[in-house]
Amino acid sequence: MTTVAQLLSSKPNQSFHTIEATASVFEAIKLMAHKQIGALVVTSGDRITGIFTERDYARKIVLLDRSSRDTPVGDVMSKAVRYVRLNQTTDHCMTLMTDNRIRHLPVIDGGLLIGMVSIGDLVKNLIAEQQFTIHQLEHYIRGNSHADVAEVEAR
């Protein structure tokens, strides 16, 4: 079972991004577009106060015809931030995301934000785990000797 710590260490780009609650939604969207990410952790000083996602933008700015330049992120962010810790499993992350219909989970260690896990990270990890299992099963079925492999291939 893969832990969040293992998942983070396997990610080539472990960066995450934050934005102050007082910043405009326009600034947030501009940063998200530049970094090609779907969520920002919202902060007020060193404190996490929420999370701002593409979904928040679509539902709370676009659909309500609000100005992204005049609206602070703090007014439209999701305030209930679900998060995970390093020792939790990717299965736990997947369950949390599915049950709460979210796509991003901040990773907290010792009260500090140290990373972000996305649904894409979890799916990529799941595929890698399945490929490993398939490889192991194929290896088991074929056996270890070259003669066994040749025999199986001949059938």
TrEMBL record:
<dbReference type="InterPro" id="IPR046342">
    <property type="entry name" value="CBS_dom_sf"/>
</dbReference>
<protein>
    <submittedName>
        <fullName>Signal-transduction protein</fullName>
    </submittedName>
</protein>
<dbReference type="InterPro" id="IPR000644">
    <property type="entry name" value="CBS_dom"/>
</dbReference>
<feature type="domain" description="CBS">
    <location>
        <begin position="77"/>
        <end position="132"/>
    </location>
</feature>
<dbReference type="Pfam" id="PF00571">
    <property type="entry name" value="CBS"/>
</dbReference>
<feature type="domain" description="CBS">
    <location>
        <begin position="12"/>
        <end position="71"/>
    </location>
</feature>
<keyword id="KW-0129">CBS domain</keyword>
<dbReference type="InterPro" id="IPR051257">
    <property type="entry name" value="Diverse_CBS-Domain"/>
</dbReference>
<dbReference type="InterPro" id="IPR044725">
    <property type="entry name" value="CBSX3_CBS_dom"/>
</dbReference>
